[in-house]
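Q: My collaborator sent me two sequences in one message, no labels, and asked for predicted structures for both. Can we handle them in order? The first one she listed is below.
A: Yes, handling them in the order given. First sequence, followed by its structure tokens:
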Amino acid sequence: MDPITAGILAATLVPLANGAAGEAGRQAWESLTSFVRNRFGRGSDADTAAQALASHPGQVVHGEVLGRLLEHGAATDEQVAAWLRTWLHDAGPLTGQPAGTSVTNTVSGQAQVHGPVIQTHTISGPITFGPPAPVPPPAGPATGTGAP
């Protein structure tokens, strides 16, 4: 069974909040927000995050916050996990995301990257960048005098 992660949730939540998939997307979004209100309560952190995403759908950070809250809910409550699995299965394809297999990676804001960045969904096994490739000596005239 695929894990329910904040990244997978955000990759589905953000496009739906932005109006993806027309009427079907609107219904999926309403289903999610209704579930959040009923399960976590009006004014809960999850409800507040859903409202923030609905009010500012272009700000991915709101989708990431809601995704993390729902991920935590799924990890601590099997009923929440079961509902979210079904919802992701139905809503994921509306956004062009295969159900439960997509993630959004972002390097933004004040981030300063000094070296390689890997953005991926799942990694199995180690990742190594290794030492840098040796630099060949500069080409130039031969400097030896030869044998006498």
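Q: And the one she listed second?
A: Here it is, processed independently of the first:
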Amino acid sequence: MTQTMENATANRVPEVTLDFWLIKLMAVTMGETAADYLAVNLGFGLTATSLIMAAILVGALVLQFGQRAYVPWSYWLSVVLISIVGTLITDNLVDNFHVSLITATLGFSLALAATFALWFASEHTLSIHRVFTFRREAFYWLAILFTFALGTAAGDMVAELFGLGYLATGVLFGMIIASLGLGYAFLGLDPILGFWLAYILTRPLGASFGDLLSQPSQYGGLGLGTIVTSALFLAAIIGLVAYMSLTKLATDSSAEKALHQRP
């Protein structure tokens, strides 16, 4: 009975494809640069920026939870906003409350582990292919939020506290993600574990390259600035979401047509 219900109910999150990882990587890169632009360049400050973006995120999540299937624009709008808010949470803890990056990294690791433990205890699965109820989607988005906050803290810890710099940090996390891909392909790495580890690690990977592009040369960056960097990645995200929407529309139309043609 349960299996029948799962098959008959549409998943509310996308399949994990190359498009998924491309847009996710760009979303986290934009999350880093957009948070810096709003808080620093526009002069809002961390507190005001955090409150404004959190309110916008709540509105986006209300729209997302109102969907009964995966809708690209609604889903990825939430991802971009939660990327910005996750960055701001970590920045607030470190800059305003003087929490060390090591403590923040450990704290968000524990929070994420607790989220997964409660999710599994409640639903008996952590699969992203079966997110079709309010409770599962709530656990999913809470986990996403903690992955962004954790990734921000871990990336800043390696790049700034440990002194590797933006480029070396990006390369390091890219190599770790590549090793996870090899582990999944050849060594039998659990796909759910591999997915969530890669999801966490793409945050510092994207943020490192976002900082590399946007920060001034005296801080180890290329000096493009947060406005240009954010605009470039926002345009790429919009283009990919439009492509995903058209592809999904064509797929849904083909499936519906095939269903009506059955004898």
